[in-house]
């Protein structure tokens, strides 16, 4: 049961400005460009911009660990003392996400692809 860090989501207030900055940083065009989410893939890393992130309680970038059994891993984190922020949610195409806060207040995201 391994987890890999492959996705980082940034909460942004001005999506157009953020797209300009991250486009310049990553040197690629977004693979997803919607009013609710912009996603880039560069060097094996998935970088997302979430204009609703601040409203969801994101105070900074959130690393999303890719896991094969999100619900099991989420339960283990909560049992270990993490605080549940967002329970498992299907964000489309069978992709599940969830997030917790560790004992120091750091945000930790979990992501399970439909193929997992």
Automatic annotation (TrEMBL):
Recorded superkingdom: Bacteria
Pfam families found in the cross-reference section: Glyoxalase
Residue ranges occupied by any VOC domain in the UniProt entry: 4-113
Record flagged with keyword Lyase: yes
Keywords tagged on the record: Lyase
GO terms of molecular function: lyase activity
Name of the protein: Putative enzyme related to lactoylglutathione lyase
Native source species: Streptomyces echinatus
């Amino acid at each position: 049961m391994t987890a890999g860090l492959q996705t980082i989501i940034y909460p942004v207030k001005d999506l157009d400005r953020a797209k300009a900055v991250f486009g310049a940083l990553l040197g690629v065009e977004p693979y997803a460009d919607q009013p609710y989410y912009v996603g880039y893939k560069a060097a094996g890393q998935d970088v997302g911009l979430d204009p609703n992130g601040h409203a969801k309680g994101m105070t900074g970038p959130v690393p999303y660990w890719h896991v094969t059994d999100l619900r099991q891993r989420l339960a283990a984190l909560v049992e270990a003392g993490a605080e549940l922020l967002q329970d498992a949610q299907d964000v489309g195409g069978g992709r599940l996400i969830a997030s917790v806060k560790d004992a120091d207040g750091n945000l930790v995201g979990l992501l399970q692809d439909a193929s997992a």
